[in-house]
Amino acid sequence: MDENVIFALLLTLFAGLATGIGSLLSLLTSRTNTKFLSVALGFSAGVMIYVSLVEIFVKAKDALVVELGATNGYWMTIVGFFGGMIFIAAIDRLLPKLGNPHEVKSVEDMDVEPSNAEYTKLMKMGVFTALAVGIHNFPEGIATFMSALQDPNLGIAIAIAVAIHNIPEGIAVAVPIYYATGSRKKAFKLSFLSGLAEPIGAFLAYLILMPYLNGVMFGVVFAAVAGIMVFVSLDGLLPAAKKYDEAHSSIYGVIAGMMVMAISLVLLA
């Protein structure tokens, strides 16, 4: 395993473990700064949308045009892009409907002594949310890994954006489990484990895709990565950012994320 692969895997591990950071924030603080959360989620969405459409999609198209020609290469890029969206949308549809996985509550918003019925409901919500987060993190791990493998600097930017949006997912997993069990340790453990789906997805991508990674395979996968990241941003990050919005803070976060990503791509070129 060469250094580039190890670096890409470590980036996905970093991004995935951000769910644990979210868990710690929810369990060690009494209130959540929702204004900051709105800006952070918007920033993450801005980074992911900009880099997907301006950088990743273009790299995928260039690779496929070289292999298949201008017209066929462009069409295959489009197929890969929307195929990635359909893939992540299908995962989203198949998951149990447990509300917004980015929904954040402060510890003061819930009863610290749930009844037996509430205990069961909260525990079920926490476990299924952890499952949902884990499944969602799987393709994100592939996206981060493939991006870092192609361009380490691009991989770092994507890993940071993914990590930011994994933080509220960790909160969503930890809070109901904590109030169901009264155990911070159990809540943190399950939240932490849900984030491990990201590096697992990356490692499976390495085992399955690497032997077949020619120009066409790279282009299609990279286009799908762009589609996945745009869908996650539009379906998850932006609605969650607007939920906690104050005075257009989420859109300012989006613009800031795009600007930072644009400047960093120029500086790293």
Please state roughly what percent of the residues sit in beta strands, choosing from under 5%, 5-15%, 15-25%, 25-35%, 35-45% or over 45%. under 5%
Task: Return the domain count.
Answer: 1
Compute the number of helices: 10
- Mean pLDDT score, rounded? 79
What is the H-and-E element order?
Answer: HHHHHHHHHH
Helix fraction? over 70%
User: Largest sheet at a glance?
Assistant: none
Distance between the termini: 27 Å
Structural class: mainly alpha
CA radius of gyration: 19 Å
How many beta-strand elements?
A: 0
- Low-pLDDT stretches are 97-102
General shape: globular
Q: Please, could you describe this protein's structure?
A:
By secondary structure, the chain is mainly alpha-helical. The chain has one domain. The protein has ten helices and no strands. α3 runs antiparallel to α9 and α5 runs parallel beside α7. It is globular and about 65 Å long. The protein starts with a helix and ends with a helix. 52% of the residues are buried.
Write the layout of secondary structure elements.
Elements: H1 3-16, H2 18-28, H3 34-68, H4 70-94, H5 116-150, H6 152-181, H7 184-195, H8 197-209, H9 215-243, H10 249-268
Helix pairs in contact: 1-5, 1-6, 1-8, 2-6, 2-7, 3-4, 3-6, 3-9, 3-10, 4-9, 5-6, 5-7, 5-8, 5-9, 6-7
